[in-house]
Design goal:
The protein is an alpha+beta fold and 148 residues long. It is built from three helices and seven strands. The longest helix is centred in the first third of the chain and has 26 residues.
Amino acid sequence: MSRRIILGSAAALVVLGGAGAFALAHAGEQPPALNNSTARYMAPAADREGSFTFTTDVTAASGVKSLKVLAWPADSPFAAKNPLTEKELAAVESATCKPAGDDTARCTYKVTVTAAEAAKGRWHVATLATADNGDTAFNDKTATFTVD
């Protein structure tokens, strides 16, 4: 084999290897991502309490540490004047997360709802996902649902 071909092939491998390493390093720096999010509300009835359930898949290269969840009414005057922040969401309840594949956890948050708590209208779901390496992803409107 020609020396020129061997040197050219070696140079190409170095360039491709470097590009691959860069891509892997960049992928590891991505914040947690939420996919397949669903919000389900069941109204309370005379003989039983209602419930709110939020389920999502959280993916983080370093692993999933936690997912904080907060449902809030869209017409809230407080939220209109003072939007939710990542710091505020850090203090709310966590979802239960279970491994669901490589770097992914299926997280479920469920709470009972009484008739007194069931304010009619449109609601948003705010989330704060935290990866094992400390990276976070905050969204004040991850999902929306309606209480009739």
